Amino acid sequence: MKALRFNGFGEVASVLHVEEISKPVPGPEEVLVKVHAASINPSDVKNVQGKFAQTIPPRTPGRDIAGVIVAGDKELIGQEVWASGGDIGFTRDGSHAEYIILPRRGARLKPKSLSMVEAASLGVNYLAAFIGLIEKARLKEGEVVLITGASGGVGSSVIKIAKTEAGHGKDL
Asked: Could you report the per-residue pLDDT of 28-44, keeping only the tens digit for each?
């Protein structure tokens, strides 16, 4: 499979290259995802530049992904998923490849209302907000939400999702 790789740290244009590598095989509690869309997160650039101590090259960068599970948990094969953050692109190879291995619990079902490109573009802030507000808190139309830390990345994402999900639109 083709993957964007770096073998050492440096400026993005000088160290990134496309490489042919073996298609990964999922282990226990992992899934193999065919990447349909991946975005570029500012942390991807910093990672390639060597600003994260946990990264050991060679590595495939990329934290944000949307795709389809093609191997691993048989119940999930064929499911559209999205993922972001965690160790993706840092201690495990990232989303800038044809396939990626994800922890089963880290591959979240992609909302049907989002295209693959939209889901991959939302990144870690929106995914954290979505999981907290929709999957865990189960926000419903008409409910009121108190958001602390609203000026940060996740907090501002919570505001945007809450406006849509709670039915308040621009009035919130």
From this structure: 999 999 999 999 988 89
